[in-house]
C-alpha cells in the first residue's frame, strides 16, 4: 500500500522569500518588499503600522532574499537531483504587472517564469504555481486600498488570463491564494490591507475576503476554459484545534476557531457561504456587499482540490488564565502540554496532521495536497560547512508516516507533498534567515551577509531516498 505511484513529492517556496532581484526585469514594488525584519515587522504585516516604502532604519530581507532570481538554474538542478516530481513556487504579481493595473503585461517578467518552468521540465519536475503568495503590487495598495476594492478582481483576472494563456502546456497545477485565511491574521502581508484609525477592521477584512473568493472562483473558471487539463486548488493555513479541556465550552470554542478558517474553504470547495458564517457576520455587524452574479459564480466554479499548509495543531480554551498565556504568534494557540515545540515555539504534532487530513477530507471529499510542512530550526554548519540536521529528518519522517497512515489506513486521497522552504529562505513570520527549513543550506545571515553559496544538508540525501522509494524507506542512516 502506501503512497500512490504517481505521488507528487517535492518542495515549496514563495517568490518574495527567495527571489530577491526586487528591481530587476522591470519588476514593480509590492507589499512584501516593504515589510521589514525586526520588531516593526508584526505591526506592519498586521496592517496596524503604515510602512509603504523603504527607510534607512530598517532591513528589508525580501530585496535580495536568497537571490534565486539569478540562481534558479542551480537551485532547480539540485531539486532535480533530489528527485522532485513537483516544485511549488509563486509568481510575483509585480513582475508580470509592475503596477498591477496596466493593460499589457511586462514581457521580461513573463519570460522569466517561462524560463523557470522550462528549467523545471528539463529536470522532470512539474511546476505547481501559487498565483499570489502574499504579494500585492504597492500601486494597487496606494491607489485602490488593495483587496478592499472590488476593482482588484479585474486586475487579478487579467493576471490569471495572462499567465494561463502564456504557460499553457507548461503548468497545470495552480493555487489561487496562498493561505487565504491569513487575511484575518496578517492582513497587510496576506492581502495588502492597511487600516486607517477608527475603521471597522472586521468589515474591511471580510469584504476583501469576499473579493478574493470571487477572484478565486473566476480564476478557476478561466483556468478550465483555457486548458481543461488545468487543476486549480485553494490553500488553507491548516491545523485543527483541540479543546484544552473536555469541557463542552472548550470543545465549542475549538469548533468556532476551526470554522473561522474553514469558512474560506467552505466557499471555495463547496461553492457557497456557510450559514454559520452568515450568522457570525450578522452578529458582528458586517455588511457584505455582493455584486449580481457573485453567488452563481462561486457555486459554478469550486476548486478541483484542497491544498493546505500544516506545521502544528492548535489548542482552544475558554479559561481566562490560559488565554492570558497565549503567545503573540500569528495564529494564537494555547500551549499543548503533550507536545514538544520547535525553537520558535511551534508545537510538533504528526498525528495532528493525520487528524487535519481526515477532517478536511471528511468535510470536502476532494483530493488533498499538502503544499507546506517542515521544521524551522537553527542549523549550525560544521567546519566543513556541513549541516547534520537529524532533527529535521525526524520531523519530516514522522509527518510522512502520518500521511502514509491517513492514505493507507483511512483512505484519504492525497495528490502530493511539498515541504516548505526546500532551500533555506527568508521567514515570512519573522523576516529571519536563521529560521531554516531547507534540504539545501544557503550561506546568508539575518543581516543579509554571506556568500549565498548553496550546500547539501544531511536531509538532502535522506529526502532523495524517500522519494526514490516512494515513501517506503523513511529511516535515517
Ligand atoms: P515562517 C504562520 C503560521 C502558519 C503559516 O512560516 C504561516 C505563518 C507565517 O509565519 O505561513 C506559511 O516563515 C507561509 C509561508 C511561510 C511558512 O508558513 O514564519 O505560507 O510563506 O514561510 C512558514 O516560519
Properties at a glance:
single chain, 477 residues, alpha/beta, TIM Barrel, eight-stranded parallel β-barrel, two-stranded parallel ribbon, 17 helices, 12 strands, 40% helix, globular, binds 2-(hydroxymethyl)phenyl 6-O-phosphono-beta-D-glucopyranoside
Structure description:
The chain has 477 residues and is α/β, with parallel strands linked by helices. It has a single domain, classed as TIM Barrel (Alpha-Beta Barrel), CATH 3.20.20.80. The chain has 17 helices and twelve strands. The protein has an eight-stranded parallel β-barrel, surrounded by five helices. A two-stranded parallel ribbon has the order 6-8. Strands 11-12 form a two-stranded antiparallel ribbon. β9, α16 and β10 form a beta-alpha-beta unit. α7 runs parallel beside α10, α10 crosses α13 and α15 runs parallel beside α16. The mean pLDDT is 97. The structure holds 2-(hydroxymethyl)phenyl 6-O-phosphono-beta-D-glucopyranoside (P53). The site of 2-(hydroxymethyl)phenyl 6-O-phosphono-beta-D-glucopyranoside (P53) has 17 residues, from loops.
Structure described in brief:
With 477 residues, the chain is an alpha/beta fold. The chain has 17 helices and twelve strands. The strands form three sheets. It has an eight-stranded parallel beta barrel, surrounded by five helices.
Unreliable sequence segments: none
By DSSP, the count of extended strands is 12
CATH topology: TIM Barrel
Distance between the termini: 23 Å
- Measured as a percent range, the helix fraction is 40-55%
Number of domains: 1
Shape: globular
Full CATH superfamily name: Glycosidases
Note the main sheet: 8 strands, parallel, barrel
Order of helices and strands: EHHHEHHEHHEHHHEEHHHEEHHEHEEEH
Q: What is the residue-mean pLDDT, rounded to a whole number?
A: 97
What is the radius of gyration computed over CA atoms, rounded to a whole number of angstroms? 21 Å
- Hetero groups bound? 2-(hydroxymethyl)phenyl 6-O-phosphono-beta-D-glucopyranoside
| Spatial sequence of strands, sheet with the most strands | 1-2-3-4-5-7-9-10
Structural class: alpha/beta
Going by CATH, the architecture would be Alpha-Beta Barrel
Helix segment tally: 17
Query: What is the CATH level 1 assignment?
Result: Alpha Beta
Amino acid at each position: 500500500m502506501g503512497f500512490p505511484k504517481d505521488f507528487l513529492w517535492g518542495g515549496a517556496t514563495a517568490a518574495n522569500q527567495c527571489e530577491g532581484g526586487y528591481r530587476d526585469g522591470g519588476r514593480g514594488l509590492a507589499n512584501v518588499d516593504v515589510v521589514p525584519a525586526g520588531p516593526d515587522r508584526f505591526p506592519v504585516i498586521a496592517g496596524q503600522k503604515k510602512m509603504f516604502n523603504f527607510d534607512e532604519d530598517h532591513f528589508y530581507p525580501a530585496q535580495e532574499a536568497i537571490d534565486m532570481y539569478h540562481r534558479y538554474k542551480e537551485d532547480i538542478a539540485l531539486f532535480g537531483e533530489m528527485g522532485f516530481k513537483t516544485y511549488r513556487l509563486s509568481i510575483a504579481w509585480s513582475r508580470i504587472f509592475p503596477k498591477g493595473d496596466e493593460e499589457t503585461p511586462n514581457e521580461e517578467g513573463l519570460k522569466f517564469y517561462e524560463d523557470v518552468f522550462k528549467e523545471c521540465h528539463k529536470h522532470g519536475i512539474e511546476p505547481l504555481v501559487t498565483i499570489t503568495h502574499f504579494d500585492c503590487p504597492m500601486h494597487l495598495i496606494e491607489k485602490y486600498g488593495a483587496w478592499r476594492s472590488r476593482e482588484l478582481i479585474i486586475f487579478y483576472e487579467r493576471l490569471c488570463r495572462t499567465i494561463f494563456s502564456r504557460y499553457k502546456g507548461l503548468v497545470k497545477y495552480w493555487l489561487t491564494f496562498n493561505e487565504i485565511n491569513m487575511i484575518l491574521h496578517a492582513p497587510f502581508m496576506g492581502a495588502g490591507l492597511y487600516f486607517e484609525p477608527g475603521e471597522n477592521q472586521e468589515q474591511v477584512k471580510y469584504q476583501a475576503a469576499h473579493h478574493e473568493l470571487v477572484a478565486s472562483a473566476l480564476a478557476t473558471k478561466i483556468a478550465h476554459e483555457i486548458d481543461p487539463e488545468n487543476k486549480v486548488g485553494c490553500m488553507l493555513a491548516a491545523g485543527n484545534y483541540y479543546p484544552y479541556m473536555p469541557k463542552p465550552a472548550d470543545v465549542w470554542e475549538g469548533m468556532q476557531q476551526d470554522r473561522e478558517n474553514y469558512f474560506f474553504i467552505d466557499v471555495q470547495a463547496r461553492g457557497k457561504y456557510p450559514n454559520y458564517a452568515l450568522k457570525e457576520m450578522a452578529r458582528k455587524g458586517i455588511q457584505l456587499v455582493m455584486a449580481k452574479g457573485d453567488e452563481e459564480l462561486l457555486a459554478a466554479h469550486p476548486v478541483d482540490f484542497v491544498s493546505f499548509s500544516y506545521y502544528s495543531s492548535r489548542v482552544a480554551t475558554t479559561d481566562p488564565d490560559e488565554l492570558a498565556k497565549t503567545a503573540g504568534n500569528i495564529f494564537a494557540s494555547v500551549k499543548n502540554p503533550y507536545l514538544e515545540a520547535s525553537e520558535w515555539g511551534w508545537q510538533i504534532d504528526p498525528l495532528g496532521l493525520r487528524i487535519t487530513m481526515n477532517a478536511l477530507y471528511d468535510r470536502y471529499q476532494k483530493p488533498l495536497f499538502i503544499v507546506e510542512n517542515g521544521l524551522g530550526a537553527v542549523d549550525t554548519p560544521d567546519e566543513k560547512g556541513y549541516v547534520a540536521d537529524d532533527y529535521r529528518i525526524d520531523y519530516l519522517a514522522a509527518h510522512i508516516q502520518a500521511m502514509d497512515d491517513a492514505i493507507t489506513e483511512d483512505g484519504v486521497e492525497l495528490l502530493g507533498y511539498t515541504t516548505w522552504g526546500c532551500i533555506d529562505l527568508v521567514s515570512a513570520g519573522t523576516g529571519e534567515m536563521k529560521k531554516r527549513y531547507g534540504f539545501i543550506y544557503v550561506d546568508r545571515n539575518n543581516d543579509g551577509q554571506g556568500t549565498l553559496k548553496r550546500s547539501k544538508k544531511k536531509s538532502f540525501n535522506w529526502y532523495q531516498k524517500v522519494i526514490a522509494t516512494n515513501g517506503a524507506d523513511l529511516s535515517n542512516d
